[in-house]
Amino acid sequence: MKHIITVQVENKPGVLARVSSMFARRGFNIHSLTVGPSVEPDQSRMTVVVDGPEMEQIVKQLRKMINTVKVTELAPGEGIEREVILVRVSSSAAQRGELLDAASIFDARAADVGPSSITFEIADSPERCNDFLSLISPYGIIELVKSGRIALRKDGRGESHPGAAAPSGLKAIGS
Amino acid sequence: MTEILTGAQALMRSLEIEGVEVMFGVPGGAILPFYDPILDSPVRHVLARHEQGGGHMAEGYAQATGKVGVTVATSGPGATNLITPLADAYMDSVPMVAITGQVPTTAIGNDAFQEAHTWGISMPCTKHNYLVTDVDEIPDTIAEAFHVASTGRPGPVLVDLPKDILTAQMQWHQPGRTNLPGYKPSTHGHARQVSAAIDLVMAANRPVLYVGGGVLKAEGEVELLRFAERANAPVVTTLMARGVFPDSHPLHLGMPGMHGHYTAIRALQEADLVVALGARFDDRVTGDPASFAQRAKIIHVDVDPAEIGKIRVPDVPIVGDARLVIEQLDAALADAQAGSRPEHTAWFEELSVWQRDYPLEYDQTADGPLKQQYVIEELNKLAPDATIVAGVGQHQMWASQFWKFERPRTWINSGGLGTMGYAVPAAVGAQVGVPDKTVIAIDGDGCFQMTFQELITAAIEKIPVKVVLMNNSSLGMVKQWQRLFYDERYSSVDLTTHTPDYVKLAEAMGCVGIRVDSRDDVRPALEKALAVEDQPVVVEVKADPDEMVFPMVPAGASNDDVIARFRDLPGQP
């Protein structure tokens, strides 16, 4: 089961290195990690997708880092999840029409069309992105790049992690 | 009026504002600008002979005093030599600030002379670290470094300062408030958790308080004593906590773990409630964690939330400062008991049988080889109030077993990292911190050969540490493992008896050297050493090379399989 952790960090030099070093040192696997500016000008927001049973330790170790302001876990279904994919798929002139049809079903856009390939862009939930890739893979995927997942909590799904202060007790995590 | 200072002067002043009284370090190119204002400052600088020595001195000072230890090194090799003390302090939660020089900002990344990526290298072995790139940030950074090092779970913080930042000029300003929006260490425990914990304490018939170094760091010894007596619960103190609860107290069962007291190990295995206070379920305590204290409910008190549930999921977790939480637990227990203290009669009877049947033992004959345990007991009689500093290995385990610790901060050692060579420099630092106390390093010959050069520092600075060097001519603990688990195939453990000549070596370094090789000479030799007040002393004890440490839980085994005594080994009479 993949879990999403969003991490609000002070925007200080090397903070990404700190986080990734901690993951490496503790032996936690990262499925994807994205980082960018947040609504607070002096803070960045990371979205980390992790795989594995160590969720609770990962959240605690992130909270323990001095530059971490806030750590939130999104249980499956609690967040709006998106990723962006650029994919170049092999396409003869004859195949172009059917590929474009398939793309339109998934709201994927042809970003570049060449004599022997089409590059699609799609920004959607990870499930829809994967469905699209499955659909076009028989044509032959030449190159692929994924942005990594970003996520926001859905409105009304409860903010269960107020502030960065470590709560007493296990129950506070993911409850 | 505005005051213009160099970065180096601002650094010196910032350290003075933090109340620093001593720094342990070694100068070099990149840190040179900082060594100039040291001459004009009242802060003492102890010149170590190696940066690792300076780092362990800062640790010893911090462990002996509770204050933040400060160490200084230059860039590149100076900083890399500091990594072992940093990792050591991180493991054992020792408050320390390391100041390192760095090549100028314009040279960073260019493989400049004596450049190392100190910030990156030190990241995983510090609580936090800084690379200062603006001279104006020096006062706030130093204030923040001391704040982080000394609060919450203490630990080492490194501040890396490029040379051009140290020479740049700034308008002096007092350090402001620290701005760490995500750093708010917990203090008091959650009231509901405290109350849940007391429910378990009230229901327990076989409780044990498993006390770790966190109680010592939190200075919770008074609260611990009160709580243990009120709960009438036996206490075990880990290697990092020796001294926080008096060994002479009837509730004290001694040290748990791989080489702990049999009764302490067994009590945890048989307990129905383990109250872990500032302890982290280290593998050297738990043995195989799956079979550790299987029948016990667990209350886990720790200031670091990440320790809770890391190894063992507790029934009641409490995040908070150990002293404050124990105080809360004690108050809640007093209310719950309403004056009636539990007897736990059956439990104490069981414990006393184990204590009677499995005491620590050794056999010192009149003319046989000297046993390290005997020397430690004799030393304890002569200097009961001394601060003991140990290296890592057999001598460390015997010191922790056979010394009677009665007060906190009288036992200083490298627990988590297990750094051989810790004793001599840490003892030097400790002695600087507590100049009126007797500080004795109990060291092994393997450890001693790693860091003895710091006795030169001690001799020149007139730091009168005593070193009792247990010379068993081998890497004793490694040898013990090869004997027990590698079919007596001894590989690279022989250090030979005669080289070096430790008495001559001591004298060459400006210390008093004493050698003792028979039982009846032990006491006079130790008395002579303790009488020296203006010079370091090395007492070389020609110790039994075949003596082994027991009890012993083999690495990875269950604590149920503890080997209590040598004669319990298969094949022994």
The CATH topology of the largest domain in chain B corresponds to: Rossmann fold
Largest sheet of chain B: 6 strands, parallel
Distance between the termini of chain A: 17 Å
Mean pLDDT of chain B: 97
Tally of DSSP helical segments of chain B = 23
* Computed Rg of chain B: 24 Å
For this entry, what is the oligomeric state of its chains?
heterodimer
Instruction: Quote the beta fraction of chain B.
Output: 15-25%
Using the 3D structure, state the CATH architecture of the largest domain in chain B: 3-Layer(aba) Sandwich
Structure description:
The complex is a heterodimer of chains A (175) and B (573). Chain A is of the alpha+beta class. Chain A folds into two domains: 2-78, ACT domain (Alpha-Beta Plaits, 2-Layer Sandwich), CATH 3.30.70.260; 80-150, 2-Layer Sandwich (Alpha-Beta Plaits). Chain A has helices spanning 15-26, 55-64, 96-105, 126-136; strands spanning 2-10, 30-37, 43-51, 68-74, 79-90, 109-113, 117-124, 141-146, 150-153. In chain A, a hairpin with a 3-residue loop joins β6 and β7 (117-124). Chain A is elongated. Mean pLDDT of chain A is 88; it is low at 160-175. Chain B is of the alpha/beta class and 573 residues long. Chain B has three domains: 4-171, Thiamin diphosphate (ThDP)-binding fold, Pyr/PP domains (Rossmann fold, 3-Layer(aba) Sandwich); 191-357, TPP-binding domain (Rossmann fold); 372-550, Thiamin diphosphate (ThDP)-binding fold, Pyr/PP domains (Rossmann fold), CATH 3.40.50. In chain B, 38% of the residues lie in helices and 16% in strands. Chain B is built from 23 helices and 20 strands. In chain B, strands 3-2-4-5-7-6 form a six-stranded parallel beta sheet, sandwiched between helices. Chain B has a six-stranded parallel beta sheet with strand order 11-10-9-12-13-14, with helices on both faces. In chain B, β2 (22-25), α2 (32-38) and β3 form a beta-alpha-beta unit. In chain B, α3 (51-65) runs parallel beside α5 (83-91), α3 (51-65) crosses α18 and α12 runs antiparallel to α15. Chain B is globular, with a radius of gyration of 24 Å. The chains are: A alpha+beta (175), B alpha/beta (573). Chain A binds chain B through residues 9-10, 13-14, 17-18, 21-22, 25, 56-57, 60-61, 63-70, 164-170, and chain B through 119-120, 123-124, 127-128, 131, 133, 148, 180-184, 186, 189-190, 193, 304-306, 308-310, 313-314, 317-320.
